[in-house]
Amino acid sequence: MHFLNTKDLKDFLDTKVAQYNNTKFIESDPIQISHQFNKKEDIEIAGFLTATIAWGNRKSIINNAKRMMLLIDNVPHDFIINHQDKDLEALKPFVHRTFNGNDFIQFIKSLQHIYKKHHGLEAVFVKHAKQDSLQASIHHFKKHFFEIEHLPRTQKHISDPLKNSAAKRINMFLRWMVRQDNAGVDFGIWKTLSPSQLSCPLDVHSGNVARKLELLNRKQNDAKALNELDASLRTLDKNDPVKYDFALFGLGVFEGF
What we know:
Elements lengths: L5 H15 L19 H13 L5 H14 L4 H7 L2 H4 L6 E2 L2 E2 H17 L3 H7 L7 H11 L22 H11 L25 H9 L10 H14 L7 H11 L3
Antiparallel strand pairs: 1-2
Helix pairs in contact: 1-12, 2-9, 7-8, 10-12
């Protein structure tokens, strides 16, 4: 689909953002898990765990994320800080695709380390943030997450943009936490970061739509493609570029664009 100028493209996408960026979006989206909580730490931990398993069928993502919350007694922060080793046994049977109970247990231990030694999730991402990007933050977050003794197999469940990953799931999580949203979908509870630093969660759907709209040329959905898409979206709105995730996702998933 070819637009004659940037203004027409922006008008089209802004209309689609308005169509999808509203509370109805929550009903079928994994972000609903975090919306069950009120405390900042509960919202971010629930969001992080949910985003970690956010690949594949959306219904099964949501069902398994609900199961995750039940297994940590629906008190994510309290469980992370105060769990005993015996509490972790109940997590062993959990499985979502290649993310299993041992991975889940490792995530609980690593999250405890992040909150006790690094002042929490937000602080880690802020520490290495660049003015217009959080991709280096994701790389350093992964290093801190796995600086305690850990299962090597679990490392694959956090992507590294510096190894050319588009890091779709963590970029989605960061959108949830950082983006200031008047429509009540994203939380905007991380005030030390700005929506202008965010990157669009790039996956099969958003990538295909972005190519059809000529926002992206690169064929692979990798870090290089993400940089290209970011640059395109920043020309449309440099302060809130990832609002267009709603447009790209909605067009791809709901409209088969």
